[in-house]
C-alpha cells in the first residue's frame, strides 16, 4: 500500500472519499497498539511504586523497582493520545446561529446555494463529495423533499439519483409530473458517513437552509418522502406508516405550507407491498394540486 505521504493530492482525496463511502468514521495508527498490555504494564508499575520496602534478602526486586523509577520519563511507556471526537468545528449553538444568519441573508435560491456551499459549520460536509441543493422549476408550486443524500446522490451531485431516483420518476409520472417541473431536494445537504441517520445537532444546523429553500421556492404543497423527513417537519416520533397520508401545515418563514408524507422510494424497493400505500398518498397529492 502506498504511504499517504507519497500520494498526490487527488489520490489522497479519492482515498478519503472511498473511506467515507465505506462508512469509516475514524482513522487509526499504521501499527496496532495493544492497549490491554499497556494498561497491565502501567498497573504493575503503580503496584511496584506503592509497595513497602522489602528486606535486604529481597534486594533484587527492590533494585528492579528502583531502576524502573530511575528511567527517564521519555523511555517509559505512555498512553497514546486519544483522537478528538468529531464535534462541529464550532460549538453547536454557534453553528446554528451562523446557519440561520446565512440562510436568512439569502434573497434568492442562487444566493442561498452559494451561502450553503460556503458554510463550514457542519462536519458532514467534510466527508461528502457534493452539496445537494434544490433543483427544478419553482413556478410549478410543487416541492418534493427527501431525507439525506444517498451514495448515488453524493456521487452524481443531485437528489434522488440511482434506483431510488428512477422509481421516484415513475411515481411522479403516474400523477402527471416529472422532476423537471417540480422542485426536488433533501433535508440534509450532505450525506452522512455510512448512510447513518443525522444526529440532532447536525439536523438543527441544517434546518435553516432547508426551511429557507421552501420559503424561497414558495410551493403550494410539499411531498415529504421517508421516515426522517416526516419526523423532521412534523416534529413527531412516529413511523412513516403512522405519519403518512395526512395533510399538515409546516411552518417556514413565518407562513404555513401544506404537506403530506409518504414512503421513500428506497423503502418501496425494499418492501414492494407498500406501493399501494404510496399510490394512495400520491393520489391525495394530485387531488390537492388539481384544485383551482
List keywords for this structure.
elongated; Uracil-DNA Glycosylase, subunit E; 292 residues; Uracil-DNA_glycosylase-like; Type-4 uracil-DNA glycosylase; 4 iron, 4 sulfur cluster binding; metal-binding; 5 strands; Uracil-DNA_glycosylase-like_sf
Structure description:
The structure is a single chain. The protein is an alpha/beta fold and 292 residues long. The protein has 2 domains: 43 residues, no CATH class; 198 residues, Uracil-DNA glycosylase-like domain (Uracil-DNA Glycosylase, subunit E). The chain is 48% helix and 9% strand. About 5% of the residues have low confidence.
In short:
The protein is an alpha/beta fold. 48% of the residues lie in helices and 9% in strands. The protein starts with 8 loop residues before the first helix and ends with a helix.
List low-confidence stretches.
73-88
Overall CATH class of the largest domain: Alpha Beta
pLDDT average, as an integer?
83
Radius of gyration: 27 Å
Order of helices and strands: HHHHHHEHHEHEHHEEHH
Q: Give me the CATH architecture of the largest domain, please.
A: 3-Layer(aba) Sandwich
Amino acid at each position: 500500500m502506498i504511504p499517504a505521504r507519497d500520494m498526490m493530492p487527488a489520490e489522497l482525496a479519492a482515498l478519503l472519499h472511498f473511506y467515507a463511502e465505506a462508512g469509516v468514521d475514524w482513522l487509526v495508527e499504521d501499527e496496532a497498539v495493544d492497549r490491554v498490555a499497556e494498561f497491565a504494564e502501567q498497573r504493575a508499575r503503580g503496584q511496584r511504586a506503592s509497595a513497602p520496602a522489602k528486606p535486604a534478602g529481597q534486594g533484587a526486586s527492590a533494585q528492579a523497582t528502583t531502576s524502573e523509577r530511575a528511567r527517564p520519563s521519555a523511555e517509559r511507556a505512555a498512553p497514546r493520545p486519544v483522537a478528538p471526537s468529531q464535534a462541529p468545528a464550532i460549538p453547536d449553538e454557534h453553528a446554528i446561529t451562523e446557519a440561520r444568519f446565512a440562510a436568512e441573508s439569502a434573497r434568492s435560491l442562487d444566493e442561498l446555494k452559494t451561502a450553503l456551499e460556503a458554510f463550514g459549520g457542519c462536519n458532514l460536509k467534510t466527508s461528502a463529495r457534493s452539496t445537494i441543493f434544490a433543483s427544478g422549476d419553482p413556478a410549478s408550486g410543487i416541492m418534493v423533499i427527501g431525507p439525506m443524500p444517498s451514495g448515488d446522490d453524493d456521487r452524481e451531485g443531485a437528489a434522488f439519483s440511482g434506483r431510488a431516483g428512477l422509481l421516484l420518476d415513475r411515481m411522479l409520472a403516474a400523477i402527471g409530473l416529472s422532476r423537471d417541473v417540480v422542485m426536488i431536494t433533501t433535508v440534509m445537504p450532505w450525506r452522512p458517513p455510512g448512510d447513518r441517520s443525522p444526529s440532532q445537532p447536525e439536523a438543527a444546523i441544517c434546518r435553516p437552509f432547508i426551511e429557507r429553500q421552501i420559503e424561497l421556492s414558495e410551493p403550494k404543497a410539499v411531498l415529504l418522502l421517508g421516515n426522517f423527513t416526516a419526523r423532521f417537519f412534523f416534529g413527531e416520533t412516529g413511523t412513516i406508516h403512522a405519519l403518512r397520508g395526512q395533510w399538515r401545515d409546516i411552518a417556514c418563514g413565518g407562513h404555513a405550507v401544506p404537506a403530506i408524507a409518504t414512503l421513500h422510494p428506497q423503502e418501496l424497493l425494499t418492501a414492494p407491498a407498500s406501493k399501494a400505500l404510496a399510490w394512495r398518498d400520491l393520489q391525495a397529492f394530485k387531488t390537492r394540486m388539481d384544485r383551482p
